[in-house]
């Protein structure tokens, strides 16, 4: 686990923690794992921490879950053992937890079918968990079935929406929270990107959360969270894993002896093959250069880029590299803070248009590029 000493301190004081928490830090700093470790301690159920499997947890993510699902599946096939098996279960569960019963609206036949599929996948996961890691043939066969059902576009994108947290979802989990019974845990990622209406509705719940209901907010940019929300949560900062600790972490968690520059680099390498990665890196550098309107666009090359980026994982890596280049230029004062923020907003809207509204990568990126070149 990343940030083990921080998590240990958190768990040692679990019973005295408030019901509303904010885990702040960059991606891959262990915030989500820490949330499940804490829930496991409060539930007194070790399986919650090991498998992230609990009917009392609802997760509203913003991250691209397909990347880690693909990486976990490929890791399992590469080296089948208890660690990779458990990691695969967690990645599937992070997707299934979006299909919590609190969010099921009767009358929506399409969603009802997908919620039913989620229940079927959960049952398959139970069989997968019960199967010994030594039975590699059965493990890989079950994993293949689970992965195929989970990785479908309609299943991965069903819960996507324009805002990370809709007002409808706030109402849904408010009703769920007030229904009584066992403790309930609601994990919300990047609430700073929610609509104003949703944030205000959320604020009212955080002011006085129902008894036995815990909210864990996970944020990559807590400085953008409303001050009124910040005043109602206990903030815990998660530092990024140090480069000198990365090798030992990968070895202990994934039995990985190769060296990587970051955890994101590790996950991307397990999700796409080397040749595709090289192309994406090359194309991202070229696309980023086109932000300068003085550079002429090569239509043939641009079309090659769009063809490759129709792949979801390819786009995730491409987008990540573009943002990294933008942050690097800003840190070296090659671009102003205002322009960096404007470009990032344009790219974010482009990403939302393709993931939420099923707009093609080509259309969304062409629109983004036109706007950026006009800045």
Automatic annotation (TrEMBL):
Gene Ontology biological process terms from the UniProt entry: DNA-templated DNA replication
Pfam families on file: DNA_pol3_delta2
Signal sequence region: none
UniProt cross-references to Gene3D superfamilies, sorted A to Z: P-loop containing nucleotide triphosphate hydrolases
Protein name: DNA polymerase III subunit
Annotated source species: Candidatus Ornithospirochaeta avicola
